[in-house]
Amino acid sequence: MRSALSALELSRPRRLDEALELMAMRDRPTPLAGGTDLYVYLNAGTLSATRFMDVTRVAELKRLRVAREAVTIGGGVTFRELREHAAIRRRFPSLAAAAAEVGAWQIQNRATLAGNVANASPAGDSLPVLLAHDAVVQVRSLRGGRDIPFAELYRGYRDLALEPDELITAITLPEPPRGARAFFRKVGTRRAQSISKVVFAGVIALERGRVTHARLAYGSMAPVPARARHAEAALLGRALTTAAAAEARESLARDLVPIDDIRSDREYRMNVAGNLLERFLHPLLKPA
Ligand SMILES: Cc1cc2nc3c(=O)[nH]c(=O)nc-3n(C[C@H](O)[C@H](O)[C@H](O)COP(=O)(O)OP(=O)(O)OC[C@H]3O[C@@H](n4cnc5c(N)ncnc54)[C@H](O)[C@@H]3O)c2cc1C
């Protein structure tokens, strides 16, 4: 059943410690950032919560810190800020590219990185990028803070390894190995405003022609974003030849068991996953 807006309670903390105090209460509010997912659920009547905490005024969540070894993005940073940020565009172009594909401008102006992560949709566009970049999620509660490797964040479909009183404060992306190439591609029904059928992010580094680092991450293929570890293993330590790329593509069958849903069937998704991997690797191939 839809909730009348007048029946909703909203708190608006300005500091992180105030927000954490509210989260520590027994009848804690639901964090509300851009609201681009939450309003949809409220409108559809699939969300029964009536107490909310608007976190958009909490300055700590809006920080974006750029250091040589890592970039730390406050949970409340929006996709518009990410797509326009010079250091993100230069050092993490696949994150800037994903940010530019989240909905349209209206959504990007409000939607936050932490909201995308906490919403935990298998089709969330930023998630494979964070996985491919070995991101670390920083969470805080009144009890203290901890870091969760992004690869360990999702325990199952929309099931996060977060305690109920914890807020996502920031997400850190370590600097990729020197010379690494990154790739992002979202495949949906339309060019704009579509939910992905397959979303892929890759990071690869080569030293003297051999692959020294490979991360291949897919979204919309399983209940949670998934690394293609067999395909990565098929590349690691080898020269990046047509044969190695073909072997990696074949290995995807061991990594991915795509979902069948209203947006697409399994076979199509598998085919697209392979094509995206080829698109990524092809410009980097050296003759066998
Ligand atoms: C028209 C439309 C198009 C869209 N297109 C896309 C798309 O192309 N790609 C895509 O990935 N998504 C898309 N979305 C979904 C949505 O915009 C994103 O998931 C967005 O990143 C959610 O962020 P938000 O700040 O609006 O989150 P909110 O709606 O405010 O919250 C989402 C969830 O995150 C929790 N949360 C928020 N902040 C925190 C925090 N700091 N710590 C802990 N939990 C927190 C909330 O409690 C809630 O459970 C679309 C939505 C709409 C309405």
Round the Cα radius of gyration to an integer and report it.
20 Å
In terms of DSSP E residues, the strand content is 25-35%
Task: Kindly state the percentage of residues in helix.
Answer: 25-40%
SSE arrangement, N to C: EHEHEEEHHHHHHEEEEEEEEEHHH
Shape: globular
Intertermini distance: 61 Å
Mean pLDDT: 94
Helical/strand content category: alpha+beta
Q: Total number of helical segments? A: 11
Counting DSSP E segments of at least 2 residues, the number of strands comes to 14
Bound small molecules, by name, code or SMILES, are: flavin-adenine dinucleotide
Which sequence of strands runs across the widest sheet? Answer: 4-5-10-6-7
Low-confidence segments, given as residue ranges, are none
Give an overview in words.
The chain is an alpha+beta fold and 288 residues long. It contains eleven helices and 14 strands. A hairpin with a 3-residue loop joins β4 and β5 (70-74). α9 (229-235) runs antiparallel to α10 (242-255) and α10 runs antiparallel to α11. Bound molecules: flavin-adenine dinucleotide (FAD). Residues 30-38, 40, 55, 75, 101-103, 107, 110-112, 114-116, 118-119, 124-125, 167-168 line the site of flavin-adenine dinucleotide (FAD).
Brief digest:
This protein is of the alpha+beta class and 288 residues long.
How are the elements arranged and paired?
Layout: E1 9-11, H1 16-24, E2 30-32, H2 38-44, E3 51-54, E4 64-66, E5 70-74, H3 79-84, H4 86-91, H5 93-99, H6 105-110, H7 113-119, H8 126-132, E6 136-141, E7 144-149, E8 154-156, E9 159-160, E10 167-174, E11 181-187, E12 198-207, E13 210-219, E14 226-227, H9 229-235, H10 242-255, H11 266-281
Parallel strand pairs: 1-3, 2-3
Antiparallel strand pairs: 4-5, 5-10, 6-7, 6-10, 8-9, 11-12, 12-13, 13-14
Helix pairs in contact: 9-10, 10-11
